[in-house]
Amino acid sequence: MTTVRHPVATASDDVVGRRSAEERAPRSSSAGRSPVRRRRENWKIRGELAILLGPALVVFVSFVILPVALAAFYGFYSWSGFGTPTEFVGIRNYVTILTDPAFHEALGHNAFIVVGSLVLQGPLALGLALLLNRKMRFQSLIRVLIFVPYVISEVVVGLGWGLMLQSGGALNGALDKIGLGALRADWISDPALAIWTLLIIITWKYIGFAVILFLAGLQGIPEELSEAAAIDGASYWQIQRHIVLPLMGPTIRIWAFLSIIGSLQLFDLVWIIWGQYVASTAGTSTMATYMVANGRNAGSYGYGSAVAVVMFLISLAVALLYQRFVLRRDTAGALTGGTK
To answer: What is the tens place of the pLDDT at every residue in 116-140?
Structure first.
């Protein structure tokens, strides 16, 4: 009599059977709703972005994009500022700007201020930042005193310096009293001195911002790097040159960018100290003062709008070129191990 042996089910066979049953079973309804859920999540994210970015975007478009577009539109008309512009002149306003020697002179003054601000403010601010970054008495008080001129209104600064530097002002009076009357000068009316006077005032006004910015950058550098270099025998100046300054590169480049853009748009100090007519004769006119003098004050808002568009294009070109060739290494992660 033969014995029939039945196969014995193993645990592995049960697992395989369950898997095949699950594969044959229809998909649950929850999996079918996953695309809907994803769409809902996407709309939720879009709604949050709209709520957070919407107000800022409306303000930016209303106060930046729209004025630039309107200025570009009015720049093609000869318009006095009243009513709807009807006298279309094409690119005549722009041709006049680019061929006007007064605009060339103002553009040259802006370029001089750009270079002068970088050359004067940069080293002075960096030296003061390095000094104030060390432990010393009255450190906080000195920082505040250096930063105070930056927060003072340009109107107050312009009026104060204008009164001190005029021919019968406090500076010439002080020179007379200390026996240095031979150094008296027309600081704000002599074309050979006025632009340098403006540069000194700008340096005094804005160096505090550069110092605070550099101090923030210095405090972000790990002290361990300087300590390790000192242990290896590096002097203080070697540490500053080979460790601190390279790591300060991104901060210095950002400050230089802000200084360049601000110098290209300089208006208030020049207008307050020198005024509409003296600025051109004293050799301190800028593109902004040229725009106001030949636009609004001359009753030619179309021409003034064209000057504003030219200023915008010059600033935009400088900003894009600076970002392309100078700031690109920072945004690419040069100091954070980014790929080259």
So the answer is: 999 999 999 999 999 888 888 888 8
Mapped onto helix, strand or coil, the DSSP state of residue 307 is helix
Amino acid letter for position 157: V
Which backbone phi and psi does 335 adopt, to 5 degrees?
-100, 5
Tokens for 147, please give them.
């930063």
Which domains, from first to last, does the chain contain? 92-331 (1.10.3720.10)
Q: What angle do CA 52, 56, 60 make, to 5 degrees?
A: 155
Q: Which residue has the tokens 């109107």?
A: 155
Angle between the 249-264 and 101-132 helix axes, to the nearest 10 degrees? 150
142 exposed, middle or buried (CB, 10 Å; 0-12, 13-18, 19+)? Answer: middle
Q: Which two tokens stand for residue 46?
A: 């879009």
Task: Say whether pTM exceeds 0.90.
Answer: no
Eight-class DSSP state of 26? P
End-to-end CA separation in angstroms for the chain: 84
The H-assigned helical ranges of the chain are 11-24, 29-32, 34-60, 66-74, 92-99, 101-132, 139-151, 154-165, 170-177, 191-219, 223-231, 236-239, 245-247, 249-264, 268-282, 287-294, 301-325, 328-331
Strand partners, 77: 88
User: CA torsion 275→280→285→287, rounded to 10°?
Assistant: 110
pLDDT tens for 186-240 read 999 888 899 999 999 999 999 999 999 999 999 888 889 888 998 888 888 898 8
Where do we find the tokens 């930056």? 150
Q: Are 142 and 128 a contacting pair, CB within 8 Å? A: no
